[in-house]
Structures
1.
Amino acid sequence: MKTPQWIPGRADVAGLALAMALGLTSFTLVRSLPASPYISDILIALVLGAGVINSPLRHRIGLLTPEADQKPDRYAAGLRFCGKWVLRLGIITMGLKVQTSFFGSVELALIAGVGFFTLPSAFFVTQALGSLTGIRQPLTDLLAGGTMICGASAVNAIAPISGSRHHEQGIAIAVMFLFSVVALACFRPIAVWIGLDPSFAGIWSGLAVNDLSSAIAVGSQMGGTGDVMAAAAKSARILMLTPTLIMFSLIRREDGPSSKRLSLSKHFPKFVLGYLTLAFIRGAGDHLFSQSPTWTALLTLNSLVVSLALSAVAASIGLHLRLHTLLTTSTPAVVVGAGASLTIASLSLAMITLASHELYTAAGITGAAGLLISILVYRIVIRHTQ
């Protein structure tokens, strides 16, 4: 009988142990240091992982940087397992942290409203910048989809539809990773400087950071309910992957229908169902067992599991953070990715900040203005470059 993919095998042990060790170290360090809004176990885990891969220590432990012409080292399988299955474990178990009091009509409307304006704005800005920089249309589509939805996962889903080349797919993934790292370093200081409440800062993280693991990690940095709100906002955004794939399949008709059907089924985010199931269980449990010490202990244990899982995931991200690769990534693609990331981050931040002060009409007007400007810029650029 074949072992399920979500159960680690012997080949996964080394990489999984390394990521978990770094995650546990960061978890312990943060709780030993004086409290600071600029330090979190997620950030420390990322720095520790990057420190290992970019220092002589990697040679001592036999950690290789993955290259096309060499076999993966003994850590590669476990790090992939951590980035996929440990991440999903963290997100699914995060459903048990959801309290119905977190989500009022304001939060739900905010997630829907901000996404309605920012996702198409990012698409039009990306297409305009792609045309200006002269990169191929398939690479532009990859950068647009990755920024709009969920980073590398969206890139991989859109690749067979857009007709991109293999190296373009790699470039797009590297750009997504680069700006996820930027978000990990910048979002929390910005939120603190603005004075954004952790719940709103978490929504911003979920709606503006492209990569799934990084979005959850950034939300966790915000403290309070930031991680839960980031997971909720990101889950809503990930659900847009299917209509996004349909959109690209309609506007890029070069490929056959079979590849489109494959992408739609293969990349549907089934783990979101687990998250929603545990969120429902949390609501029922709070109603039935709110005074039970066992229920309280279970929730405390679950929070610990979530924190350790996400710290390990952040460490695995850091262990792939090769400075040489990031510095040598295609410059035009970096410019396009920067424009797309800045658009979705700044527009969503402006709308969420206004909404946090109950200026809902102003938030809507800001989103509409941002979308209108992005469409006008796109039309002007396309008119002059084609």
2.
Amino acid sequence: MPHSLIPSSWLSLHGLFTVSSLFVYVVASHVLHQRRHPSAAIGWVLFIFLLPYVALPLYLLFGTRKLARTGRSRADARTIPPGADQSAWPAELAVALGQPGPAPYRALCVHADGAESLRALLELIDGARHTLDVCSFMLGRDPVGEAVSSHLAAKARSGVQVRLLLDGVGRMMGGWPELSPLVHAGVRVGLFAPLLHFNLRGRTNLRNHRKLAVADAGCEGERLWCGGRNLAAEYFEAQPGGAAWRDLSFDLQGPLVRQAADLFRRDWIFAVGAEPSTTGAAAAVDAKPTAMAAPGEATGQIIASGPDQADDTVHAMLVSAGYRTRTRIALVSPYVLLDEALLMALCLAARRGVEVDLLLPARSNHRLADIARYRSLRALVAAGARVWLAPHMLHAKAAIIDDVLALAGSANLDSRSLFLNYELMAAFHDAGDIARFSAWFDRERRAARLYDAKPPGLWRDFIEGLVLWIGFQL
């Protein structure tokens, strides 16, 4: 439409709305300390400038990346408990990033497959005597989801205080499992940021991807089940027409469990809005401090990452590992979308002779993620890293750094997991247990083939760039 045919009053209102929208973006980013990647910041500014009527509502819904922290303060977390291995840089770095100090654990079991993992989970549920907290992104409307729900309901009816926290979007992806039988049995059910719950604080795009089950934290026999598996059938057992997804999970006992219980408690408060009243053994985790590790005792830390943390903790630890590792970095993730900082750290590690191995599925369950990953993979191979493609769906998330650190949990190597989602990784510092995770990685790698990097064509390069740009904004 020619300029003369556009009413000047409309142009003035349009300009005022555009300027106001940019002002909202700038003020919100400053006040909430969003610290966006430059490409994301430029993308939002251009989007608001070109399409302010569309961009502003989307920013209010999806724009928040960091929230005010709840629970543990940075000052409270800076002291490493006496007796912990203060010479190990991973533990010191985690504490500097506001995470709890090393705590002892025992009886670590790295599950061989989905069947063993499901048995361990149901045994943990059935063995709970006082409290039971379960957090999952997804609860499937399938035999596994029904089995877990049945065991949770039975525990609640027996008098155990049971809480189940599910992500709002994850519940939808799981087929909208029926939760009323759990509620009627006495299970307290919380939904984390339900999809259809409009929220001007921008939480709609922030998902809780943490996966854990904690029994009797702070009491004798306290136990943790954790890893990358959602509570749905494909993560544990073969499905009609296909094999079970390969994944990584583990369970353990001891004082480290209390760190996971504390993280669940903070997530529950955020999702539900109030801490349920607890008495006796149910309140033990809040009253009982984490035990100090004895010399030679295995120690670990629960590493939380997400909007509730001041720093991007898992990302920071991986970047630091790229510069500090001496001999080996082994990484596994179903989805790989590395930002410039992490990609450079891994490439420089490979160039200085570190053995860098990345294991991922040849084809994942997310086609766009598969398209977006190849720029990172080509750069890694060019630097001397080895990229391994597994023939099956591999959903595990882990990192093994020399013999000083093993990380295992829920965080993928993509921008959503590292910068947006609420994630959980357990850090293990015991050399023997690190070797067990390394052996698991080597077993999974045997079936994989090396990725042969080839230059992309013009059209492929354009598509990859477009998917990468869109993906980072979300």
3.
Amino acid sequence: MELLRLNKFISHNTKHSRREADKLISEGKVRVNGRAQTDLATQVSYDDTIEINGKKIFKKSEFTVIIYNKQKGELVSKKDDRGRKTIYDSLPKKFSHFLSVGRLDFASEGLLLLTDAAAIASALMQSDLERVYYLKIKGEVTEAMKNAMKEGLYLEDASKGAHKLNRVKSMEFAPFVAYEVFGSSGGYTKLRVMIKEGKNRELRRFFGYFDAEVVDLKRVSYGSVDLGVLKPGKHRFLTNSEYENLRDFLKQNKVYY
């Protein structure tokens, strides 16, 4: 019998986030098998009866995934205390409870997956599905960069390219799956890279180590899902074939929905 934290059960099967679930639990609004639970460490199974304000929660069996073409100057966040624009300002309100599969930073753009199923968001984020990016860096692609892209790289100090408030300092970069240099002009180089990770500002940190600032970054694919001709600031649902590929991925990774 699989056990999971009560807040996780709620976030997986309702529109509530884990933080919102914690609040509901703390306020005594959640009952497990008829008894109010206020302990945030409570674990439950799908054999238990879970209620929020007297309404029974059923195991979610369907899910939705959308593709959003994130624009530069948008945060991948529900809200911002500095009043900056977020992706949810551009998306229709019916997607306000959707979770993003990873993030793209404020200055980056391109393909972002969002879903109403927390388990699927986690599975995709932790996967080694290939991600493809188009980059424009300041300077040229050196032999040292090429070797690091082929062989991988470990940095004790990966702060160049990181957000100033981020506490992650050291970082290990797996070898790139592939890369292609399109040429240099005006002191900049354009290239296409394919990686299997999604670490915090990974590409900005990687090239920052070589003092090559990333001035443009656009993600164009994630696994079998491609951005295609989707315009910036617009979204679309997965196609039937994309859903089939996703279900195959979930089955292979033992994520059952």
4.
Amino acid sequence: MTTEPQDQLSRDLASLKIDREAKPPGGRRSLILWLVVIAGAAAIVYFVVVPRVRDKLSTPTVRTSTIAMVSPSQSQVQVTATGYVVAEISAKVAAKVPGRIAEIYVKEGERIELGQKVARLEDVDFRSGLAAARARAAAARSRIQIARATLSETRTQIARETPLVANGVTAKATLDDLEGRALSLTASVRSAEAEAAASDAEAKSLEIQLGSYVITSPISGTVIDKLVEVGEGVSPGFGTPGVVEVVDLDSLVVEVDVPEVRLASIKVGRPCAIVLDAYPTEQFDCVVKEIGRRVNRAKATVPVKASFKFGVKKPDVLPEMAARVMFLSEPAADAAPKTADAGLKLVVPANAIVQRNGSDVIFVYDDEQVRMTPVKLGPAFGDGRELQTQIPAGTKVVLDPPASLTDGQKVKEKSS
């Protein structure tokens, strides 16, 4: 009788027991999800981060030069240096007084002469002051005329009264009054003359100052840049430094930095040749115009200026163009610009040529990558080799490429 209730109690207690070995639902799925996330992160690190870090740590630095278009006469090249076209005569035409631009009379590319009007500042208020000064001067001159006329009339009366007083016809007091009035009128004339002179001087000063509101060019040349627009304010002391920039294109020279150790081979008046990066197939003969009197200790270079032999007549040669100057031991055959039809040859630096699989190759540098390019070479030419493979002049090539350099490899260009 008592066994059955005890069995029932045991079953009820057993139903309340916690199964500690049971695993929570979904545990396996969460574990798989975490494994997938970890594997994805590891893949990103391996395929994205690691290559970038490897590139940063292992990207080699290379020196570069360019394939040049040169003439046979340049086998006498002694030194080659790079620089920029600069103008020896140039000006940023500025205003003498602060103001706001009312008119601009010139445009970019226009040829202007010395003293030509460039722009005008707003001058309405100033012209009003000038008109008032001129009116005051005119009024002072009118008072001079009135005072002189009154003085003349008084002197006439004195001349009439003098004999009458002498004969006792008129009292002397009347003559004394007229003479005193004459002295006063004389002083009035002098005062009016002084006032008129002061007004004229004021008007003249204002006229000179008004001339400062018209901006003129201090040199003859070509307008290469408009620095302001109508309505903008200018000032000689601060703000916009000028109104237009004028350059004398006939004064263009090329300024280059020559290594100090090669300076002994350069003399003023010696021949040279200029090749512009913008027109690599053309060449201009030049002469050494000036050797600088300062040394850049950081770069161990000296500035040298080379002038175009007959001046620059091509309008396409502009300031700040990159250029290469080759200093020659002998003058070129003629001084006219040379073209590709005048015997110019493609020349690649000799130390840019290496052997790969028994063939001559160069490594072309382009956008931080190198491209191995097989080439066909001609005879030696100066410090390089004639290049018979058609590659555009100005193309950058790697100098002294290491044996480990491969096609398509990323590199960094060594800064000069």
